[in-house]
């Protein structure tokens, strides 16, 4: 995956196999941030997001972007929750 490609969506397994879907988002300020969806929520978000579309997200977690794999250089990443909502803008 190219970290400069804001449209990339990738699947991976962490050491605990809890995060299996991730993607990069380009903000309105042209900044990139990583977002992840836990394995148990892939059914809800996995097919919802389409490359090249614009979305509005609400009710998600924001955590430090730490660990051995970092898709962006942003200091935080978004974590989708059961109550996260996604609307096409």
TrEMBL record:
InterPro entries the record matches: NA-bd_OB-fold, RFA1B/D_OB_1st
Ranges in coiled-coil conformation: none
Replication protein A 70 kDa DNA-binding subunit B/D first OB fold domain segment(s): 28-88
SUPFAM superfamilies for this protein: Nucleic acid-binding proteins
Protein name: Replication protein A 70 kDa DNA-binding subunit B/D first OB fold domain-containing protein
């Amino acid at each position: 995956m190219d970290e400069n490609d804001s449209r990339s969506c990738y699947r991976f397994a962490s050491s605990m196999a809890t995060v299996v879907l991730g993607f990069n988002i380009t903000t309105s300020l042209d900044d990139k941030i990583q977002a992840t969806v836990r394995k148990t929520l892939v059914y809800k978000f996995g097919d919802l997001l389409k490359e090249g579309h614009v979305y509005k997200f609400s009710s998600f977690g924001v955590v430090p972007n730490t660990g051995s794999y970092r898709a962006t250089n942003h200091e935080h990443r978004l974590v989708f929750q059961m109550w996260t909502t996604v609307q096409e803008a």
